[in-house]
Amino acid sequence: MSRKPYVREVPKTTWYFRQGRYMRYMGREVTCIFVGAYALFLLVAIKRLSEGRAAYEAFLEGLSSPAGILFQVVTLIFVLYHATSWFNLTPKAMPVQRGEQFLPGGVIVGAHYAGWVVVSLVVLFLAGVF
Amino acid sequence: MAKSNKPIVWGLFAAGGTLTAFFLPALIVLTLLAALGYVPDLLAYENMRAFAEHWFGKLVLFVIVSLSLWHAAHRLRITLHDFGFRSDTLIASAVYLVAALGTIAAIVYLLRI
Amino acid sequence: MSERQIQLEVLRYNPETDSEPRFQTYSVPCEAEWVVLDALNYVKDHLDTTLSYRWSCHMAVCGSCGMMINGEPTLSCKAFLRDYPDTIRVEPLVHFPIERDLVTVIDDFMEKLNRVKPYLIPKEARTIAEGEYRQSPAELKRFKQYTLCINCMLCYSACPEYGLIPDFIGPAAIALAHRYNSDSRDGGREQRQQVIATKEGVWECSFVGACSEVCPKHVDPAAALQQVKIASTVDWYKEHLMPWGKS
Ligand code: FES
């Protein structure tokens, strides 16, 4: 009896439509576009800062254009998704073992969220928001 | 098969991922506030300038910009592969080149302040 | 009556006559407490003796009955009908070639499993007279969950990177390598790193996490792979930036 195994090809460009979890994964991965865009945005801000007051203030001015605001709002949404998905996965990458028990994953995630809140408040405070 | 050299970029990716998760949301809120007309004190020209003139301020800005870039570059490489772009060598060279140029540019601009 | 009529849409493939697989629907009278495997057994016993599929233990231990059930990699002996609608679609595990009907070709996984040396390589050889290799409960706990793998290959079916990159060594095999690497009695980590710290080893993983979601034994291979990445990264920096730190 001869063998003739049948191979089902994976659609190389559309495979992530097959399952909801693949879509969530791709959503997490595309956050990098916005992280990268914001990094370049900061780079431009530093460049303007190095060019003096007029350049820097023109840059600040430009932020309030509709496109500038839209860019930042969308970026904020994607970066928040990046942050939550990143923190939620920390117990897998860095489990903490105490004696014969592992610290529950929720504790590790919770600690990250708590740290995140503190860091954010400190940044906003130091920047003079309140 | 030899051990992979991916750890170089993966280390930067992981460090950048953690850093951006902790810091970028608050930073975006700052610039968004400025965009909406409530410019936070720090973002005013004199204060920002003073911040960036100090070596510690330079270091903070440098670390944030460069690690964010490396994080994004490495993840973009993987993501493009996931979307079906298979020329990994070309893509990897391109994204890491951008990250490297951005890192150098950050150093140059910061040293000019 | 606790009987329920289920429409079982089964992907059939006969290598001797078919050029490609096709669905065949069986109408199966099912008891309320049945699992999908029971329904398949009913088909085999009463409706169609030609249907081929693997199973053995019927209790989620042997790992042979994995299938796509409504698109999800699942052990058919653990898939209770009460959790499914009246029409259930059953296909062989994706990412593996189909040998016949629901039977897949698993040679690729077996070869990879072998490659990672999934057995204890003792740190120091001991004679029987010298006694057993001792281990504390805490040392056991460190890797216990990874010993629960039943090689059912659901994780390979769930992993899109394995589907896209067939050379990828994949979740279960790397998780098992990690299991032995984390064993206090083991000294074979460097040998296994030569296999798994490579491009087609752990570095093809992009942490989709699907493997852990479908794992019927909660082995959490995704966690193992991330830990291998971190450890391999630490190794790399030690080897290249601190040559004196080489062990
Ligand atoms: S029959 Fe053994 S695992 Fe399902």
Structure description:
The complex is a heterotrimer of chains A (about 130), B (about 110) and C (about 250). Chain A has helices spanning about 20-50, 55-65, 65-90, 90-95, 105-125, and strands spanning about 95-100, 100. Chain A is mostly helical and about 130 residues long. Chain A has a single domain, classed as 3 helical TM bundles of succinate and fumarate reductases. In chain A, strands 1-2 form a two-stranded antiparallel sheet. In chain A, strand 1 and strand 2 form a beta hairpin. In chain A, helix 1 runs antiparallel to helix 2 (about 55-65) and helix 1 (about 20-50) crosses helix 3 (about 65-90). Chain B has one domain (about 5-110): 3 helical TM bundles of succinate and fumarate reductases (Up-down Bundle). Chain B has helices at about 5-35, 45-55, 55-80, 90-110. In chain B, helix 3 packs antiparallel against helix 4 (about 90-110). The longest helix of chain B is centred in the N-terminal third of the chain and has 29 residues, at about 5-35. The N and C termini of chain B lie far apart (about 45 Å). Chain C has about 250 residues and is of the alpha+beta class. Chain C has nine helices and seven strands; from the N terminus they run ββαβββββαααααααα. In chain C, the strands form two sheets. Chain C has a five-stranded mixed sheet with strand order 2-1-5-3-4. In chain C, strands 6-7 form a two-stranded antiparallel sheet. In chain C, helix 2 (about 105-115) packs parallel to helix 6 (about 170-180) and helix 6 crosses helix 9. Chain C is elongated, with a radius of gyration of 21 Å. The interface between A and B is large, with 51 and 54 residues. The complex binds FE2/S2 (inorganic) cluster. The site of FE2/S2 (inorganic) cluster has 12 residues of chain C, from loops.
